[in-house]
Amino acid sequence: MSEPLLLVLNPNSTRAVTDHIATAVAPLQHPEGPRIVCETLVSGPPGIETQAHVDGITEKMLDWWKHHPQRQQAAGLVIACFSDPGLHAMREELSIPVIGCAEAAYHTAAALGGPFGVISILSRSVPRHLRQIRLLGMEHLLAADLPIEVSVVDLGDEALTFGRMQSVGECLVRQHGARVVVMGCAGMARYRRRLEDTLGVPVVDPTQAGVAMMMGRLRIAALP
Amino acid sequence: MSEPLLLVLNPNSTRAVTDHIATAVAPLQHPEGPRIVCETLVSGPPGIETQAHVDGITEKMLDWWKHHPQRQQAAGLVIACFSDPGLHAMREELSIPVIGCAEAAYHTAAALGGPFGVISILSRSVPRHLRQIRLLGMEHLLAADLPIEVSVVDLGDEALTFGRMQSVGECLVRQHGARVVVMGCAGMARYRRRLEDTLGVPVVDPTQAGVAMMMGRLRIAALP
Amino acid sequence: MSEPLLLVLNPNSTRAVTDHIATAVAPLQHPEGPRIVCETLVSGPPGIETQAHVDGITEKMLDWWKHHPQRQQAAGLVIACFSDPGLHAMREELSIPVIGCAEAAYHTAAALGGPFGVISILSRSVPRHLRQIRLLGMEHLLAADLPIEVSVVDLGDEALTFGRMQSVGECLVRQHGARVVVMGCAGMARYRRRLEDTLGVPVVDPTQAGVAMMMGRLRIAALP
Amino acid sequence: MSEPLLLVLNPNSTRAVTDHIATAVAPLQHPEGPRIVCETLVSGPPGIETQAHVDGITEKMLDWWKHHPQRQQAAGLVIACFSDPGLHAMREELSIPVIGCAEAAYHTAAALGGPFGVISILSRSVPRHLRQIRLLGMEHLLAADLPIEVSVVDLGDEALTFGRMQSVGECLVRQHGARVVVMGCAGMARYRRRLEDTLGVPVVDPTQAGVAMMMGRLRIAALP
Amino acid sequence: MSEPLLLVLNPNSTRAVTDHIATAVAPLQHPEGPRIVCETLVSGPPGIETQAHVDGITEKMLDWWKHHPQRQQAAGLVIACFSDPGLHAMREELSIPVIGCAEAAYHTAAALGGPFGVISILSRSVPRHLRQIRLLGMEHLLAADLPIEVSVVDLGDEALTFGRMQSVGECLVRQHGARVVVMGCAGMARYRRRLEDTLGVPVVDPTQAGVAMMMGRLRIAALP
Amino acid sequence: MSEPLLLVLNPNSTRAVTDHIATAVAPLQHPEGPRIVCETLVSGPPGIETQAHVDGITEKMLDWWKHHPQRQQAAGLVIACFSDPGLHAMREELSIPVIGCAEAAYHTAAALGGPFGVISILSRSVPRHLRQIRLLGMEHLLAADLPIEVSVVDLGDEALTFGRMQSVGECLVRQHGARVVVMGCAGMARYRRRLEDTLGVPVVDPTQAGVAMMMGRLRIAALP
Predict the structure, then answer these.
(1) How large is the C-alpha radius of gyration of chain E?
(2) Are A214 and A122 in a shared domain?
C-alpha cells in the first residue's frame, strides 16, 4: 500500500517560493510519514496580491486536486499562502482535512500566549487580513498589522526586505505590545530565526505553523 | 551537549493518566528530537475537578519546575490537563514556550474548520470551560459543551465511559451541528479513534493537540 | 453625453433568473436615471451552490467588466446573488461603488427594525451566510437562518417552493422571533408579496434591497 | 383613492432645516410615488443637542402622528435627525415602517464598503452616537467619530462650517482610515458634494440615506 | 447645614408603587445618612409599559429636578423603574451621580456570579431589556428574559402574580441555567424573599440594587 | 443568636494593608449589621504581584475558611485584592455570596456611567486585568489601564505614590476620555478623595465598592 502524503500547495506559480516553503517545512517531516510534498499551482498567478487573485485560485486548486495523480494517497492539505485562498471551498469539496496557513499562524500565535502582531508585505492586503481575523474571533489578540510596503520586484533584495521586517517588527513589539509576531506571507521563513533573535519574541512562519498542525493531526489519525 | 526536552506535565498525581498521555503522544515523537518526556506532578491532587484544584496546582507546578533536574534542557512545556492549570502563571515565569492543552485543542478544532463540540466529564467543569472559550474569543465556534457525568470512580468502566462519550458526541454532531469534537479531558486518547469512526467527524484529544503544536514550534525554533 | 447606468449583474448564466430580477427591480427605475440594466454573466455557472462557485465567479466578473461595452457609462454595480460573489474583489478593482445584494438585504432588514430571519434554499449555504453575517457584526440581529431544501430542479415547482417558503417563514416568525424576513436567494421576488401577506412582517428581496440602495446613492451622487 | 406619502419628519422646529432636507431628498422623488413630504415638528426644540432633547421629542412626534391630517395616506416615516429620536417608540406604535436616518446612514456606509468615519457637530453628541453604533453591532466598522465643535450660532457661517468639516473629514480619511464618511447631522447635505470631491471617498448624508431606503421599500411594497 | 439626600424617583404616578419601593429600600438606610427619600413623579404615567412612556418621562424628570425644593441637598439619584427612563439625559444634566435600577440590578447579578435570568412583566418590554443588556456588554451573562404576561390590572392579584413569577423563575433556573434571578420590574420587592426561598438562587430587586450601590457611593464620597 | 458577619479578606499577609482597608470600609458599616470584619490571610504572600501569587492564594483562602472560628456566622465574603484571587473557586465551594473587589469596582464604575480608566501599580498586572475585563464583557467601557510603576518598596513614599496616581489619572481623563477612574489596587483608599478632587470625576476604590455591594445584598437578604 502506498504511503500517505501531506500535501502543501503553494497557490502561486513561482517555483522559488515553493522551494523556500519546502526548505522551511522539511524539519517537520517525520520519518514514519506522512510524507510532506510541496507543490506549485502552475496555473496560479506569479504572486497573490489582490482579492481577485485570491478568489480566482479556487477553481485552479480544485482542478489541481481533481487531476492529482496521487490523490488517493493524500491524507491532508495545507494551503501555503497567507490569504488562505480556496480554504472554505476546499473544505466543502474534500473529505480530507484542509488547513489554511494564515489560520494556523493565528492559532499558533494565540497558543503561544499572544497578543500578536502581523508583518504584512503590502498595505492593500491588511483589510483582507482583518476580515479573516474578525471571522476567527481574534480581534482582541491582534496588536497591529503593519506592512513593509516592499514591491514584488524588490522582495528579491533580501537586505532591504529583512531591514523593513525588522523595523516593522520592532514597532509591533515596542509600540503595539505584540508578544508574538506572525510573518504575513508564505515563503519568508528564511528570515524567521534572525527576526526572532532581533525581536526577542516568538516569530511564527505560517507555512511551518500549518504543516506542524497537519503533521500532528495526520500522525494521530493514522493510529489504529 | 544534552538533548532538548519537550516536557509534558500531567498536573494530577495519577500515574496511570500520565501513562495514557505518554502512549497518546508517542507517535508525535520525532527521532531527531526534542525528546518528549511525560511527567506526573506527584504533589498534585489525584484528579482535577474543581476551580480550587486548578488554582492550587500553580504553586506545585512552579516548585516542580524550580527543582527539575533537567530544567536546562527543557525547550517547551505542555500542560496536560483540560483546565490548563497554571498556564498564565507559567508563561509569566518561564522563558520557554508554555502551551495549555485545552487552548491547543480549541485552536486545533478551529483550524480543522469548526464549529466544535466539547465532551466534558462533569457538568461542574462546563462554566470553567466557557470562561476559557470566551477569553479566547471562540464563543461563535462552540456548538455546545455537554457532560457525560461519569464520576471518577466509574471512569474506570471503559464500556460505560465510551458509551456515554458516544451518545454525547452524537448529540453534539446531530443536534448541535458540531463538525469537530473536542475531548474535554486529558488521558482519554484511547477512545479517540473509535469515537471518530462512530461520529464521522474529526475528534481532537487535547494532549495530542498540545504536543503537536509544541513539537512543531520546537523543531522549527531549533533551526539555525 | 451618454446616460449613466446602474448595472445589475446576475452572476449565474440562467437568463430566466436575470429576467425575474429585472422584473423585480423595474419599479425602482427612476425616469431621470440612472438606467437600470440587468445582465447575465454568461460565463457563470447555471446556479451558485457551493463556495467554489462563489470564488470562481470573481475572475469571470472582472473579465465581464473589462470588456463591457458601456463601461464608461457605468455609475454603480449591484451583485445580484445572495452569496455576494466577487464583492470585495470588485470593490478593490472598480472605482465606482459596488453593493452586494446579501449585504444590502441584511442592512435593509436591520433598518426596518430587525431581528431578521433568513429563508435559505439549501442547508449547505447556511454556514456561508453565517460567515458573512459575522463579518458584518449582525449576529445579534439574526433570529435564525433556515433552509427550504428544495433542489434546483424542483425550484421550478412554484407551489412546492412557495409552500416551503411559507412554512419556513412561519417558523422564523413564530418560533424564532423574526420581525423581518430576508429571502436568501436572488430571483425569487415574485413570491415576496404573497409571503409578506402570509407572514405579517416585512419581507426583503435582496436584489430589490441592493438596487434601492444603489439607486439612492447614484441619484444623489449625480447632483452638482 | 389618495396617493401614498413618504413622510420625512424634521423633529426640530427650525423650518430652514426642513427646507434644506427637502432640497436634499428631492432627487429621490419617484414620479409614480410615493410622494415625499417633509415636515417640521413645530412643537420640537429649535435644535437637538442633548439626550433630554432626544427623549423629549417622542411624545411630540406621537402627538404629531396622532393628529396628522393625512395619516391614512402615510406609507412610511423617516426620522430626519441624526440622533434618531423616537425611533424605537414609533416602531412600537406605528404599523407602517419607520427608518431612522442615522441608522440608515450607518447601514449605507457599511454597504458602500466601510470602515466609516463620522463628522459630528459637537463632542457632547459623540457618546450618544457610540451607544447607537454599539447597539447596531458596527463598532468594528467605525474609523472614528470626530466633532467640528461649531456652535449652533456659528453653523450659519458656511465657510467656517465647511472648512471644519473638510479638515475633520481629512483627519478621518488620512489618520483613521475611513473609506466612507458619514455627515453626523441632518440638514447639511448642501456640503455633501464638495466634501466628497475634497476627500475622495463617498460621503453619506443621513436624510438622503434614510429616504433612499424608504423609497425603495415603499415602491416595492406597493407592488401587487 | 442640611443633611444630604439620596433621592429615589419612581417615575410613574402610582403612589402605591412608591410605597412598596420605600419599604423595600428602608433596610438600606444608614442612620448617619444620606437620608433616602422616595418620591413619585406625579406628572408621570400610571405605569411604564412602552418605549414612548420611557422617552416621555425624561422631560418630566428634568422638570421635577428643576423645581425640587431640596435640590441643593440631593447627593445622588436612583431611577426606580426597570426601563431606566431618562438615565443618560439625567447624567448629562446633573452633576450628582445618577444610577439606573436596571443597570444596577444587572451589575449586582453579575457581581453575584451570574449567569442571570430576568423575570419581565410583559413580553413587549423584552426587546427593550435586550437593547440595554447589549449596550452594557452583558449578553453572555443573560440566561434568558421571560415574561409573566400579567396585565397591570391583574398585578393586584398577588397570588396569581407570585405564582407566575415562581413558574417563570423555575424555568429560568432549571431550563436556562440562571444562577441569579433579576426581577424585571420596580415595586415587586415584597415577593423577593419568597421567590429566593423557592428558587434556591439569589433574587435581585432592582430598586434595592440601585439604592445599595448609591448608598455605598455617597457614604464614601462624603468622607473627608 | 450570634450576629451575622460580612467578612472582608485581605489575601496578602501585610496587616497594614488590612488596616487601611478596615478604615476605608468603616463608613459602610450599618449599625444593625451585618458586622464588617476585615481579616488578613496570614499565610498569604506579603504582596500579590504575579499570576502565581494569585493562583496560589486559593488553597490558603479555602484553608482559612475551613478553620474560621466564626464560619457559621459568615453571611458574605468580599475578596479585598484587585486580582480577585480565588473568586471562582470560593463561589464553587461556599454557599454564601462571594464578591471580588475588582469585579465590584468595574461594575460600580459602569453603573456610574463610564467609560472608566484603571490606575494600576505595575505594568505586569495589566494583562491580568485585561483578561478579567474581557471575561466580564466590559472591553467597550475601558478607556485605558495605565500603571504608575511604583515598586512595593517605594509605595511607602506617599508623596511619590500620589503624584504618580495623579498624573496617570489625568492622562486617563484628558487623553483617554475616562469619566470614572478605578484604583487598581486594594488598600489605597486614603488617596481616593484627593484624587477625585484633582481629577474631577468619580474615583472608585475596589474594597469600598465590594463592601458596599455586599452590605446591600446582606441587609436585604436578612429581611423576612
Answers:
(1) 17
(2) no
Of B74, E194, E19, B96, give the one whose Cα is nearest residue A112.
Answer: B96
Nearest C-alpha neighbor of B93 from the set F119, F42, F145, F54: F54
Quickly state the pLDDT bin for C152 (edges 50, 70, 90): confident
Q: Is the pTM of this model over 0.90?
A: yes
Closest by Cβ to A107, choosing from B110, B205, B221: B110
Residue E62 forms contact with D (CB below 8 Å): yes
Residue % of chain C over a pLDDT of 70: 100
Direct distance between the N- and C-terminal alpha carbons of chain C, in angstroms, rounded to an integer: 16
pLDDT digits (tens, 9 = 90+) for F88-143: 999 999 999 999 999 999 999 999 998 999 999 999 999 999 999 999 999 999 99
- ipTM of the predicted structure? 0.96
CATH number at residue F128: 3.40.50.12500
**Are C27 and C89 within one domain?**
yes
* pLDDT tens digits for range B27-37: 999 999 999 99
DSSP track, chain E: -PPPEEEEEE-SS-HHHHHHHHHHHGGG--TTSPEEEEEE-TTS-SS--SHHHHHHHHHHHHHHHHT-TTGGGEEEEEE-STT-TTHHHHHHH-SS-EEEHHHHHHHHHHHTT--EEEEES-GGGHHHHHHHHHHHT-GGGEEEEEE----TTGGG-HHHHHHHHHHHHHIIIIIT--SEEEEESTT-GGGHHHHHHHHSS-EE-HHHHHHHHHHHHHHHHT--
Distances from the Cα of F132 to the Cα of A17, A134, B50, angstroms: 43, 21, 19
Q: Do A108 and B219 touch (CB under 8 A)?
A: no
Cis bond upstream, residue E127 (ω within 30): no
pLDDT for the residue C85? 98
Residues E176-202: pLDDT tens digits? 999 999 999 999 999 999 999 999 999
Q: Residue F185: which domain range?
A: 103-206
From chain D, pick out residues whose CB is under 8 angstroms from the CB of E56.
55-56, 58-59
Identify from E49, E54, E55, E92 which residue to disrupt to test chain D contact, counting D C-beta atoms within 10 A and taking the largest count: E55
F160 and F212 belong to one structural domain: no
Beta-ladder partners of D39 = D9
For the stretch C30-63, pLDDT in tens is 999 999 999 999 999 999 999 999 999 999 999 9
- Condensed to tens digits (0 to 9), the pLDDT of residues D92-101 reads 999 999 999 9
- Regarding predicted confidence, which is higher, C5 or B224? C5
- DSSP, collapsed to helix, strand or coil, labels residue A103 as helix
The CATH number given to whatever domain includes residue D29 is: 3.40.50.1860
pLDDT at F13 over 60: yes
Kindly state whether residues E128 and E188 are assigned to the same domain. yes
- Determine the length of chain C: 224
Considering its fold, how many domains does chain E have in total? 2
Pair (A50, A15) in one structural domain: yes
The per-residue DSSP string of B23-46 comes to HHHGGG--TTSPEEEEEE-TTS-S
Q: What is the mean pLDDT of residues F47-58?
A: 95
| Cα within 13 Å of Cα(B24), Cβ side | 29
Task: Provide Rg for chain D, Cα atoms.
Answer: 17
* Minimum Cα–Cα distance from E200: chain F residue: F95
Is residue D121 located within the same domain as residue D167?
yes
Q: What pLDDT sits at residue C1?
A: 56
Domain match, C94 and C124 both: no
> Which tens digit of pLDDT belongs to each residue from F192-219?
999 999 999 999 999 999 999 999 999 9
Distance, CA of A139 to CA of C137 (rounded, Å): 13
Give the bridge partners for A10, in sequence order: A40
Q: Is C197 helix (H, G, I), strand (E, B) or coil?
A: helix
**E221 chain-F contacts, CB cut-off 8 A:** 196, 202
B108 and B195 housed in the same domain: yes
